[in-house]
Amino acid sequence: MLREEWEAFLSAFSFFTRLPLTPKKFSLERGVLYLPIVGLFLGIISLLLAKNLGPYLSPPILAFLILASSYYLADYFHFDGLLDTIDALAAGGDAEKRLKILKTPEVGAIGVLFAIFFLLGEYLLSVTLLQEGHTMAFFWRPLVGREAMAFLALLSKPAKKVGLGSLFLSTSRKRLFLVQLLWPLFWWQAPAALLPFFLVFFLKFKFEKNFGGLTGDLLGAGVLISQWSFLLAFLIGG
């Protein structure tokens, strides 16, 4: 039992981060339970950067380093899904057409434009939060993002029978439900997490209406949109 859980733990980190961990038996079905630990690890990295480099670096430089480390360690994977999602939504047409666009490796002009505004907005939010001393926002940000992804997966259904989204969505519903027990902790420690929580319901409706369900790209988009909205809510509420 402990061996299986250890393999599941390694599976979560090998799948959702750049850490060079290789489980002997890959098990995403069990690994979803450890999504909060993945978020905790990423949050600690961001918080350590903010606390230890804050006295020596200006907020603009520090914000850049925090976001760069976050995207390098994990969020680059989800960013690709976000841009594919924007391109597919902008293209119009039926669900089948949008799903085909999700699979294309190229990023369209709308996706590029959205990427510029999305990253610029996230950067400006981060700079302002650092200037106002809200370093804990960077600790909670990746935790809320992974929690939102698990919540979205719990509420929705796969749009396809193959692919990363189908693999993730076919995981244990019980384990996805157990991850949701952390939401009250977020609301107590960081009330800004209320916005991503309710945003998940909107994303579920939007994705099922336009794609017929979820894919790996859409789950990645959910992570980054939730994190972005959390930083905004933290700034407004702080």
Can you describe this structure?
The chain is mainly α and 238 residues long. It has one domain (34-237). It contains twelve helices and no strands. Helix 4 (59-91) runs antiparallel to helix 6 (109-131), helix 7 runs antiparallel to helix 9 (173-179) and helix 11 runs antiparallel to helix 12. The longest helix is centred in the N-terminal third of the chain and has 33 residues, at 59-91. The chain starts with a helix and ends with a helix. The relative contact order is 0.15. The mean pLDDT is 90.
Task: Summarize the topology.
Blueprint (H helix, E strand, L loop, with lengths): L1 H15 L11 H4 L3 H19 L5 H33 L3 H9 L5 H23 L4 H20 L8 H6 L3 H7 L3 H7 L4 H18 L4 H22 L1
List keywords for this structure.
238 residues, mainly alpha, globular
- Provide the residue-averaged pLDDT: 90
User: What best-fitting shape do the alpha-carbon axes yield?
Assistant: globular
Structural class: mainly alpha
Uncertain regions spanning at least 5 consecutive residues: none
**In whole angstroms, how far apart are the ends?**
43 Å
* Count of distinct strands: 0
Helicity range: over 70%
Which percent range describes the beta-strand content? under 5%
Number of domains: 1
Order of helices and strands: HHHHHHHHHHHH
Largest sheet: none
The number of distinct helices, counting runs of at least 4 residues, comes to 12
Work out the radius of gyration: 17 Å
